[in-house]
Design a protein that fits this description.
The structure is a single chain. The protein is an all-alpha fold. The chain is 70% helix and 2% strand. The protein has 16 helices and 2 strands. It has a two-stranded antiparallel sheet. The longest helix is centred in the first third of the chain and has 26 residues, at 39-64.
C-alpha cells in the first residue's frame, strides 16, 4: 500500500488512492459526455491532478514528519520528470507550494530549528528548482550548518539565476573566506560593493580581506568608513581593527600611533570594563608613540585579563616593551574566524566578523 496522509475527521488518503479517485472522476466525466476530453488531454490532466491533489493534502504531513514528506516529494517529482511533466507541474501548482514551504523554512530558521528549516528549503527547491530565492534560502541554511561547500555551490547558482540581495553575496563571500580562498572572496566583495556601496557589513569584510591580502592602506580606509557609517557593533569592531593596523602594521607608511590611540581610547570608553584585547591594543598604540611606561602598564593588564592560552603571548609582549621595542604584527597571518549572519531570518543582514587577534 502507498503512504497514507492524514486528513481531518480521521480520513486518510494515499497517492495511489488519490490517483484512483482522480481516474474515476475523469472516466465518469467522459462516460456521461458532460465534458468532452480528448484522450491525450485526459491523460495529462489526470497525471497533473493526481500529484497536485496529493501534495495539497500533504501539507499537514510536512509539519509532523518533514523527513518522510521530503522523501515522498522527491519521489513524486522524479516520477513527473520521467514523463517530461515537471516544468508544467511546477507552473500549475509547484510554485505556490514551494513559496509556502519557503515561508515555513524562514519561520523554522528564525526559531533556530535549522534541520527542519533545511528540509522545508529542500522541498521548496525540489518543487521549483530554478527559483533563486529557494536556492539562496537553502544555501544560507547550509552555511549555518557549517556545510560550506554545498552552501557556496547553491549560492553561486542563486546569483547566476538573478539573486540580487546583499546577504546572498555576503554569505557566499564568507563561504570562500572559510575555505581560505581570500583573493576570490576579495574580488567577490569588491563586486558586491559596487552594487551595494552603502552596506557597512560588506565594507567591514572588505577591510578584513584587504588586511589579509596585504593591502593595508585600503584596509585602514575601509575600517574608518565603517566607523562612520556602520552600526555601533561594527563601529566598535572597526575601531579595534584599525587601531591594530595603525599601531603595529609592518608597513611604515601605514602606521599612525596618535590616530591608533584615539580610536582605541574611544572604543574603551564604550566598555564597562576593558578586556584583554583592548588593553593589548592600548599597549601597542603607546609603544608606537614611544611611551613604553604606559605600554608596559597596559600590557601587564592585558596579561592579567587574558585567558590561560593567551598568557604566554602576553608575557612575551611585556618583555618586548621592557626592552623598549614596539610590536609589529603580521596582519596577513591572522586567520579570519568563521562568522554567522547576525539575523535570525533567511534574508539576514551580513554576518558580523570577529575581531582579529592582536
Amino acid at each position: 500500500m502507498g503512504h497514507t496522509l492524514p486528513r481531518r475527521r480521521g480520513f486518510h488518503i494515499s497517492l495511489r488512492g488519490c490517483f484512483a479517485l482522480t481516474a474515476i472522476a475523469a472516466l465518469f466525466l467522459v462516460a456521461v459526455d458532460r465534458i468532452r476530453l480528448f484522450p491525450l488531454i485526459a491523460i495529462i490532466s489526470l497525471v497533473l491532478a493526481t500529484p497536485a491533489i496529493w501534495l495539497l493534502l500533504a501539507r499537514r504531513r510536512w509539519r509532523k514528519d518533514p523527513t518522510a514528506a521530503l522523501r515522498r516529494t522527491n519521489k513524486l517529482v522524479g516520477l513527473l520528470e520521467k514523463f517530461g511533466l515537471r516544468e508544467l507541474f511546477t507552473w500549475v501548482v509547484g510554485e505556490r507550494l514551494a513559496t509556502e514551504l519557503s515561508v515555513k523554512s524562514n519561520t523554522l530558521f528564525a526559531a533556530g530549528r535549522l534541520d527542519d528549516a533545511l528540509q522545508c528549503a529542500e522541498m521548496a527547491l525540489i518543487l521549483d528548482s530554478r527559483n533563486p530565492v529557494h536556492q539562496a534560502n537553502k544555501g544560507i541554511v547550509l552555511y549555518y550548518l557549517d556545510r560550506f561547500g554545498e552552501s557556496e555551490s547553491l549560492l553561486n547558482e542563486a546569483v547566476a539565476n538573478g539573486a540580487s540581495e546583499a546577504h546572498v553575496h555576503y554569505c557566499r563571500i564568507w563561504c570562500r573566506i572559510v575555505r581560505k580562498a581570500h583573493p576570490l572572496a576579495l574580488a567577490d566583495c569588491e563586486s558586491a560593493l559596487i552594487r551595494f556601496p552603502d552596506n557597512p557589513e560588506l565594507r567591514l569584510t572588505l577591510a578584513q580581506l584587504s588586511q589579509l591580502t596585504g593591502r593595508y592602506r585600503e584596509s585602514i580606509a575601509a575600517y574608518l568608513l565603517c566607523i562612520d557609517h556602520g552600526s555601533p557593533e561594527l563601529a566598535a569592531e572597526s575601531r579595534v581593527q584599525a587601531s591594530i593596523l595603525l599601531s603595529s602594521c609592518p608597513d611604515d607608511q601605514c602606521r599612525n600611533g596618535k590616530l591608533a590611540l584615539e580610536l582605541i581610547q574611544a572604543h574603551a570608553q564604550t566598555l564597562p570594563e576593558t578586556d584583554w584585547i583592548t588593553e593589548s591594543v592600548l599597549a601597542s598604540s603607546y609603544a608606537e608613540l614611544g611611551d613604553y611606561a604606559a605600554a608596559l602598564q597596559h600590557a601587564q593588564e592585558a596579561e592579567r585579563k587574558a585567558p590561560p592560552e593567551e598568557k604566554p603571548v602576553r608575557q612575551a609582549r611585556i618583555e618586548l616593551y621592557q626592552s623598549r621595542k614596539p610590536y609589529r604584527c603580521d596582519p596577513t597571518s591572522c586567520d579570519m574566524p568563521k562568522s554567522k549572519p547576525g539575523s535570525n531570518e533567511l534574508s539576514p543582514a551580513a554576518p558580523t566578523a570577529n575581531s582579529a587577534r592582536n
